[in-house]
Design brief:
Blueprint (H helix, E strand, L loop, with lengths): L2 E5 L6 E5 L4 E5 L2 H7 L4 E6 L4 E5 L2 E2 L2 E2 L8 E2 L5 E4 H6 L13 E3 L27
Bound molecules: zinc ion (2 copies).
The site of one zinc ion has 9 residues, from loops.
């Protein structure tokens, strides 16, 4: 099984990700934007059993030393790990198999994105944005 090992800026926390993510998306929802303080959230989503802290202590999913966000959880307790965190641990190159496959909650976006990925208005089963 593939294992991705990522860490925060100060290296105190290490997070291991096993196998394949549940989802690879760029989320535009208001919760994600507020949480990450950005215009959208490029994220890989892992379930309980596929992501684990392998070194260090966590408090609210931030590193208590450097303050970096390692992950956040969603309503069903899956771990949402920012793409940039993974990329940083791989020479600033997100492994190709972890790149986003769709945008979600595009109807809540604050900026338009021009790429070729499908843009769902809400979740995965929602209609696509017709640009
Ligand atoms: Zn979101
Ligand atoms: Zn840290």
């Amino acid at each position: 099984m593939k294992i991705y090992t990522v860490h925060c800026s100060c290296n105190r926390i290490e997070l291991s990700l096993y196998g394949e993510p549940k989802a690879r998306v760029i989320c535009h929802c208001i919760d994600c934007r507020e949480l990450l303080d950005g215009p959208f959230y490029p994220v890989t989503v892992w379930t309980d059993h596929t992501a684990s802290i392998t070194r260090g202590k966590m408090k609210k999913y931030f590193c208590t030393n450097c303050g970096e966000v390692l992950f956040n959880t969603n309503s069903v307790d899956w771990q949402a790990v920012p793409q940039w965190l993974i990329a940083k641990s791989y020479d600033n190159q997100l492994p190709l198999e972890l790149t986003a496959v769709a945008h979600i909650f595009y109807e809540q976006r604050i900026i338009d994105v021009s790429d070729n990925l499908p843009k769902h208005l809400r979740g995965f089963s929602s209609p696509l944005f017709e640009g």
